[in-house]
Design a protein that fits this description.
The chain folds into 2 domains: 101 residues, Urease, subunit C, domain 1, CATH 2.30.40.10; 261 residues, TIM Barrel (Alpha-Beta Barrel), CATH 3.20.20.140. The chain contains 11 helices and 18 strands. The strands form 4 sheets. A 7-stranded mixed sheet has the order 4-3-2-6-14-17-18. Strands 7-8-9-10-11-12-13 form a 7-stranded parallel sheet. It has a two-stranded parallel sheet with strand order 1-5.
Length: 379
């Protein structure tokens, strides 16, 4: 195909799970739209970029992180910490609740170049307090949550509820979850769910409460949260939940990715649906950076097939967010969100949350395009 473009990017490998294309090729952009993609893209362009030894993907989608500008104790500026590192769309896990939702929408969702969606916190306070967001049951306000959702437009995807002791303090996690289920039923939105310690609340009982389309995050934890049993098999309640349509997300963070667990789950045929960083304030200035390309590399090292890794940060999270026609794809007329990665064989070792290492290289971001406009390179 031959036409005129505002931006033409050629790469040694172009991957799009939606179209099935995987090979040398190019993407042509006009305005904020992709107008051509594949092996035979040709034409004149105002700007042409060549990446013969790099990988071109749709803009990465991080389904669990903490984009914020104020309001949240966990929050980081997405245009500083995510966008230059290849993430063009990010879902906030509960940074804002009903009380600060309006400010969050203005300052973050409308005020950032990065596309931000919100899993609104069931706590009306969001993550604005120093302690747990559910330490005061008066904050667990179903009506306030529903009222905020009525004003959501497309900005609020779902409801965040983490029933861990850190979030709930001494309050009954069953009561928090009862209110979460009422909020989900009343709004028709899915839950982004963090488990209680299964020694305090059996895993099967918690999973039985989740509905198709709900997302369980923090998948590959160790200890009492380990989804892999002593016989090397994934817990049957986990498999049953997936059969019912519950989705499973990494949510790496500071405590939720252990190589041994991921490798055992992968060996038993249980990969994640989506790969996410749970990146927040404590990760700022980490060396090496805690970003989505490095998290992708850890899943690759744990045995997840490469094409499945790419899908889990592009088309699949896009589908979860209900944005398949707009993001996570290189198909014509989709938004021109693009990420270029290079493989670094000599990168620092990949390290899990317990200090276990895997070597073998790492994907690193070298160029990002958001809605047709280049983004300054990562620091």
């Amino acid at each position: 195909m031959y036409t005129d473009y505002d931006l033409l990017i050629r790469a040694g490998r172009v991957f799009c799970s939606e179209s099935g294309f995987d090979g040398p090729g190019a993407v042509g952009v006009r305005g904020d739209r992709i107008v051509a993609a594949g092996p035979d893209v040709a034409g004149t362009s105002s700007e042409t970029l060549e990446f013969p030894e790099a990988l071109l993907l749709p803009g990465l989608v991080d389904l669990h992180a903490h984009p914020a500008r104020g309001e949240s104790k966990y929050g980081v500026d997405p245009d500083v910490e995510f966008l230059p590192r290849g993430v063009t769309t990010v879902l906030s896990q509960g940074d804002a609740g009903a009380v600060n939702w309006t400010r969050y929408r203005k300052r973050v969702i409308e005020g950032c170049r990065t596309r931000v969606r919100l899993a609104i916190n069931l706590s009306s306070q969001g993550e604005s307090m120093p302690g747990g967001c559910f330490e005061d049951l008066d904050w667990v306000d179903v009506n306030a949550c529903a009222s905020a959702v009525e004003d959501k437009g497309e900005a609020i995807w779902g409801i965040a509820v983490n029933v861990s002791r850190i979030a709930c303090g001494n309050n009954d996690p069953h009561e928090v979850m009862r209110r979460a289920l009422r909020a989900a039923e009343g709004t028709g939105l899915p839950l982004l769910y963090g488990l209680r310690n299964p020694q305090e609340w059996p895993l099967a009982e918690q999973l039985d409460l989740l509905q198709p389309g709900d997302v369980l995050t923090y998948l590959y934890r160790s200890g009492a949260w380990n989804i892999v049993q002593a016989d090397g098999r994934v817990h049957p309640a986990i498999r049953e939940a997936r059969r019912r349509g519950v989705l499973f997300d990494i949510g790496h963070g500071m405590s939720s990715f252990v190589f041994d667990v991921a490798e055992a789950a992968m060996a038993d045929g249980f990969p994640p649906d989506t790969i996410s960083t749970d990146s927040y304030a404590r990760h700022v200035s980490s060396d090496p950076p805690h970003d989505l390309p490095r998290t992708m590399s850890k899943l690759l090292a744990a045995g997840m097939p490469e094409a499945d890794v790419f899908t889990a940060v592009t088309s699949r999270p896009a589908a979860v967010l209900g944005l398949s026609d707009e993001i996570g794809t290189l198909t014509v007329d989709s938004c021109a969100d693009l990420t270029v990665l290079r493989w670094n064989d000599t990168a620092l070792p990949l390290v899990d949350v317990e200090g276990n290492q895997r070597s073998g290289g790492c994907w690193e971001p070298i160029f990002t395009v958001r809605a047709g406009q280049p983004v300054a390179a990562a620091r």
